[in-house]
Amino acid sequence: MTPPSPKTSLGHIRVLDLTRVLAGPWCAQNLADLGADVIKVERPGAGDDTRSWGPPYLRDQDGNDTTEAAYYLAANRGKRSITLDISSPEGQQIVRDLVLHCDVVLENYKVGQLKKYGLDYESLRAIRPDLVFCSVTGFGQDGPYAHRPGYDFIIQGMGGFMSITGERDDLPGGGPQKAGIAISDLMTGMYASIAVLAALTHRDRTGEGQYIDMALLDVQVAMMANMATNFLSSGNAPVRWGNAHPNIVPYQTFATADGHIIVAVGNDGQYRKFVNAGGRPDLADDPRFATNPERVRNRDLLVPLLAHMVKARTKQEWIDQLEQAGVPCGPINRLDEVFDNPQVQARGMKLALPHPAAGQVNLVRSPMRMSATPPRHDMPPPMLGQHTDEVLAELLGQDAQQIAALRAKGVV
After folding, report:
1. C-beta of residue 17 within 8 angstroms of C-beta of residue 38
2. What band does 6 get if pLDDT is binned at 50, 70 and 90?
């Protein structure tokens, strides 16, 4: 194990991570970034489902695919991997023994599944009363949907996100649209991270552990933010506006000669600067478009004129000119352009770590910047079972013969 730096926030915390796929591993990765010793428990021979969610896969030093899918790499840096069959009595006992050395347990099994193994919160807190135990499920531990499996795509639809995401229904391509990433999974992982840290703070003050019940649907409803309160305040359900804004015009994307840009005009003065930059001052003098309320009323007349104006120049020409004029704007970058961006490079968001199979793995660093206890970036996503012998010896005192016997029985 690479010892955590004494300057990390959570170098005194150990996490037993029984999660897989994305929401739970994202939480565990946040805790690992902050210095926690995260022990990832995986199925012997298979591991986390996302290890095989490719291509693309990480390539070895000869350019051949390894068994590590890029999806898995995104959510598992900074952890140690052990393989363990928790359906076996021996595997269940190893989990109990490890819990005695851990502060936090994360799990995302189906409701009630861990109870069958004697590994649920009530069973484990009997041996570790100050344990922080976090369950991540689709719908939570109670309610009529509790026993349903939860998938991010379905949750985005059920939780209202897709009702406000996508092009307007009356335009070509209109209709509901999911996000390009699994936002309910990721946000659940973020909320779970906050809840775990809050529970650890409470434990430090009182000595009391606790149970955390995180549900993807709860998180999706909560993250609707102002759209949810718009509905709760008015009784009117918001609708899809695509890349436009329901109350401000122009505040949307436009196609240029070689790509797309975002123009976010916030007031009438910025609007005049925008059309002046495009050689169309008449569009600011026209009373139908002179003020934002009139532009909103006449959106369908104005936007095609602006689209024609913007199409005449390249993306970079528009960005240079609008930035000089003080009009809020920005590009819509592909990911190759993101990582070529000088600001992204200056902030060091691309992270290269040594890897036992590939020599090096390229990842995205944690965005958390902390002056006294910065995140650690010294351990790549582990190979399947890479640390099994190490963890069993270090924490449970098992010798090579004992571990070999467990391996022969398929327990590890």
Report:
1. yes
2. low
Separation CA 103–CA 48 (nearest Å)? 22
Task: Identify the CA nearest to 23 among candidates 121, 139, 118, 130.
Answer: 139
Assign domain 14-223+344-408 one CATH number from 3.30.470.20, 3.50.50.60, 3.40.109.10, 3.40.50.10540.
3.40.50.10540
Pick the catalytic residue from 37, 85, 185, 218.
Answer: 185
| Closest by CA position to 128, among listed 206, 210, 213, 205 | 210
Q: Which of 4-13, 151-160, 273-282, 331-340 has the lowest mean pLDDT?
A: 4-13
Q: What is the CA radius of gyration of the chain?
A: 26
CATH architecture of 251-255+260-331: 2-Layer Sandwich (3.30)
Distance between CA 19 and CA 50 in Å, rounded? 11
What's the predicted TM-score (pTM) here?
0.93
Indicate if 85 belongs to the active site. no
The pLDDT tens digits of the residues spanning 48-69 come to 999 999 999 999 988 899 989 9
Report the Cα–Cα distance between both ends of the chain, in Å, rounded. 19
Strand partners, 37: 14
- What is the Cα–Cα distance from 244 to 174, expressed in whole angstroms? 13
| Domain positions in the chain | 14-223+344-408, 251-255+260-331
Q: Which amino acid is at 374?
A: P
